[in-house]
From TrEMBL:
The active site is at C233. It comes from Desulfotomaculum nigrificans (strain DSM 14880 / VKM B-2319 / CO-1-SRB). Keywords: Cytoplasm, Methyltransferase, RNA-binding, S-adenosyl-L-methionine, Transferase. One of its GO terms (molecular function) is RNA methyltransferase activity. Coiled coil: none annotated. The keyword Transferase applies. S-adenosyl-L-methionine binds at C111, A112, A113, P114, G115, G116, K117, E135, D180. Residues 24-294 form the SAM-dependent MTase RsmB/NOP-type domain. GO terms for biological process: RNA methylation. CDD domains: AdoMet_MTases, RsmF_methylt_CTD1. It holds the Pfam family Methyltr_RsmB-F. Belongs to the class I-like SAM-binding methyltransferase superfamily. RsmB/NOP family. This is RNA methylase, NOL1/NOP2/sun family.
Amino acid sequence: MTQLPVQFIQRMRETMTEDEFTSFMASYQERPRQGLRLNPLKIDRAEFVARMPFSLTPVPWCDTGFYYSEADRPGKHPYHAAGLYYIQEPSAMAVVEVLQPEAGDKVLDLCAAPGGKATHIAGCLGHTGLLVANEINAKRARALSENLERWGARHILVTNEQPEKLAERFAGFFDKIVVDAPCSGEGMFRKLPEACTDWSEAKVAQCAVIQKDILPLAGRMLKPGGLMVYSTCTFSRAENEEQIENFLGNHPEFTLEPVPKASFFQPGDLPDTVRLWPHKISGEGHFIARLRKSGEPIKEKINQPREKPLPREVRRLLESFSQDVLGFVPQGRYVLFGDQLYIMPDALPDLNRLKIVRAGWHLGTVKKDRFEPSHALAMALPAGRWQRSISLDPDSQEVYRYLKGESLPVQSGEQGWTVVTVDGYPLGWGKLVRGQLKNHYPKGLRWL
Ligand SMILES: C[S@@+](CC[C@H](N)C(=O)[O-])C[C@H]1O[C@@H](n2cnc3c(N)ncnc32)[C@H](O)[C@@H]1O
C-alpha cells in the first residue's frame, strides 16, 4: 500500500466525515486504473476498438477514453509509436471534456507538458483553429513537442515561455484556455508513489503562490465571452476552491459555469466546481472549475506577418518530392525558416522573440538539389495519402527492428523515400536503396 504522508492523512481526516474518510483511505488498497485515449486525427472509434490488441473498457466521461488491463503494455506497442493513442490517467481525461474545444477555436494550454490535455485538445480541433501548447520547463517542452508530433497535430504552436511573456503577446487572443496548474499532486499518490515523498505542506503553499500568479495571466489572454478551465490533480482546498474564490474576488468579469458531464463527478465545495475522488470513481484525484469571461466575443483582426511566396526552386523541389512519394502536394501557408519548410495555421500571430519549440506542420528540409521530408510530415499525413509505402505487421520482428533504427531487407519497390507504416498507420520514413530499407526513424525516438 502507498505510504501516505502523516500530515496529509491528518488533513484529510479533518476535512471529511468518518465514513467518507474510511472509504477514501480504503481506495489506497486498490491499484490505480490505467487509461488511454484514441487519436481521432488518425482512427475512428469503431476501427480502434476492432484493431487494438488490448482489453479495453470505456471511460464513462470521455468518448475517446478507455481503461486497459494490467496485462496490457500499450506503451510498448508499435501502434503507440504510430500515435494511435495517448496513455493518460482516466480522471485527467475529464479536463478537456469540460473545456469542450470545437473546430476553429483558438485554444491555449498554458501548462502543457507532457501533453495529455494538449493532444486531447488537438484531437477535438481536428486540423482547424490553433492550439498553443506552452511549457515553462525546456526539457518538458521538448517532450511535449514530440508527443504532439507523434499525435500528428498540424495546427499547433509549442512554446517554452513564462506565462507573463505569453500574456504580453496574446492579450484577449484565445477562445478557450486550460490552466492545468502545477500542483502538490496529492491526487496522484496512489499512481506515483514518488509524489508522496515529494510532498509537504510547504509544497502546497508554494504551488498555491504559483497558481495565484498564473490564473490572472491566463485570464488576460482570454477573449471576452471566452472560456477558461482550471484544473489540478490535488485535494488541498488552498490549491483548488480557494484559488478560484480569490481569482473571482479580483476579477468580477469572470463567473463560474456548471461543468458539463458533472453528474459523473462529485461537487466541489464551491458551487459549480467538481472533484474527482478515487473512492467515488475509477480514476485518481482531480479538481476542475469552468470559468466564463463576460462580454461579447470581438471579431478580431489577426496581424499575420506578411507572407513571402516560396522561392521558385523551393516550390519545385517540394512539388517534385510530393508528387513522386505522396501523390499530392500539401497545401497551406508555407513558411521557410532558413532551410526548414513549414505550413502554418492561419490563426498564428507574430512569433518574433518568443521561444518556439514547434510551429505548424514541419514538412522538411530544403537542400540544394532535393527536399528531405521531416518525421512530422509522415506523422500528420492524411490517411492513405501516399504513393510509396511499406506496411509492417504489428506482430512482426521487422516493425520492432524498424523502431530500433535498423535497416531492413526488402524484396521490391521503387528506389527512394518511402512512408513506413504499421498496418497502414505511418511510423516514419525509410529510403529504399538496392534491396535495403535505410532507416530514417529519428535517432532520439528509437526504441532500445
Ligand atoms: C500538471 S502539469 C501539466 C500536465 C499537462 N497539462 C498534461 O496534461 O500532460 C503542470 C505543468 O506546469 C509547469 N509549470 C511549473 N511551474 C510553472 C509556472 N510557474 N508557470 C507555468 N507552468 C509551470 C510544470 O513544468 C508542469 O509541466
